[in-house]
Design brief:
This protein is an alpha+beta fold and about 170 residues long.
């Protein structure tokens, strides 16, 4: 990990507030896929995921070649917005194919593992180690090499790290 360690050694937590409506998934965790393509979701996230969606999850592809894991209730408004776009527009059709076409309804097994379909593992170029990265209402799941590249991109931005609207962010 070298100088990137500070970005990946983040305190991770998941909280559910207001009867499962306010999710906050944050932090990054290195995890291993087993031989059957299952990913053990850390206990600190598992309970919140199950509580937020009655155990119903959606796993889909992301244009950056990672996967997205949503509680079903958080995914539905996104899906509906994507599906409302015109199929005659090439960009809209492409995003529909990617996000909705690859979406899979999943549940955690009794051991808290998520089965990642072979097609999605191939799309995201998963090998043994992957990264589960909290993004507020959902998770991104990255291959090890993909996650390291994302961190490298951020670190090489220099003074341009903060996008418009976040220039005054104080850490």
């Amino acid at each position: 990990m070298g100088n990137r360690g500070f970005l990946t050694k983040v305190f991770t937590r998941a909280t559910v507030t207001g009867e499962g409506t306010g999710l906050m998934f944050q932090g990054a965790a290195a995890l291993s896929l087993d031989a059957k393509g299952r990913l053990a979701i850390p206990a600190r996230h598992r309970d919140a995921l199950v509580a937020a969606s009655a155990g119903q999850l959606v796993l889909t592809a992301h244009p950056h070649r990672c996967l997205l894991l949503y509680p079903a209730g958080a995914w539905e408004p996104i899906r509906d917005k994507v599906l409302a776009a015109s199929s005659l527009d090439q960009r809209s059709a492409a995003i529909k194919r990617l996000l909705v076409g690859n979406a899979r309804e999943e549940t955690l097994d009794s051991a808290g593992r998520l089965l990642v379909a072979p097609e999605l593992r191939q799309f995201a170029q998963f090998e043994k180690q992957v990264w589960l990265v909290g993004q507020g209402s959902h998770f991104e799941i990255w291959s090890d090499s993909g996650w390291q590249k994302q961190q490298d991109v951020f670190l090489t931005m220099g003074d341009q790290q903060l996008p418009p609207g976040l220039e005054d962010l104080a850490l």
